[in-house]
Amino acid sequence: MVWKPHVTVAAIIERDQRFLLVEEETPRGLQFNQPAGHFEKNEDLIAAVKREVYEETAWQFEPEHIISIQLWRRNPDYPTFLRVCFTGACHSYNPGQPLDAGIVATHWLTRDEIAQQRERLRSPLVLIGIDEYLSGQRHPLSLLKSFLDLDYA
After folding, report:
1. I want to staple 49 with a disulfide (CB 3.0 to 4.6 A). Which of 9, 32, 98, 130 is the partner?
2. Considering Cα of 111, then 116, then 121, then 127, what sign does the dihedral take?
């Protein structure tokens, strides 16, 4: 069998020193995460993060920077994740938009409130990404290059 990491996207969204998190049902109980999810066939990474934020929070998201590209595995028995972490701004909240299955609520929390929930974070990447954001780490979206349906005849 071919080994492949799971490619995911995540959004660090800050407003008034609070960060948008989702509270979601997981096999380990209710946990907090950034709006995040798997990259899907026929979309680029920017489309993926916009879609995930909207599906999980009902907010339209406009990515502005890449915070980091994170490779993570809990231990050798767990899957490996390659996570592209974006930051940007939200606009146009749609209160009628149903949230993805498993999303219980959205929350705007301070960094300290998030750190107090350390045991309920979906992964250590939640707080690591926020700390990278707070340290000023930013990379241009132009680092991403998509060559979908490119004809090499």
Report:
1. 9
2. positive
For residue 150, being part of any structural domain is answered with no
Does 55 reside within a domain?
yes
Q: What is the pTM of this model?
A: 0.92
Beta strands in 14-143 (DSSP E): 14-15, 18-26, 29-33, 36-38, 60-73, 80-91, 103-109, 139-140
Query: 33-63 pLDDT, tens per residue?
Result: 999 999 888 899 999 999 999 999 999 999 9
Separation of alpha carbons 9 and 17, rounded Å: 22
Q: 114 is written with which tokens?
A: 């998030």
Q: How many CA atoms lie within 13 A of 138 on its CB side?
A: 8
> pLDDT digit string (tens) for 96-119?
999 999 999 999 999 999 999 999
Q: Which helix (H) or strand (E) segment is 8 a member of?
A: strand 6-12
| Number of independent structural domains in the chain | 1
Domain at 102, CATH number: 3.90.79.10
What is the domain range of residue 116? 6-143
Strand partners, 149: none
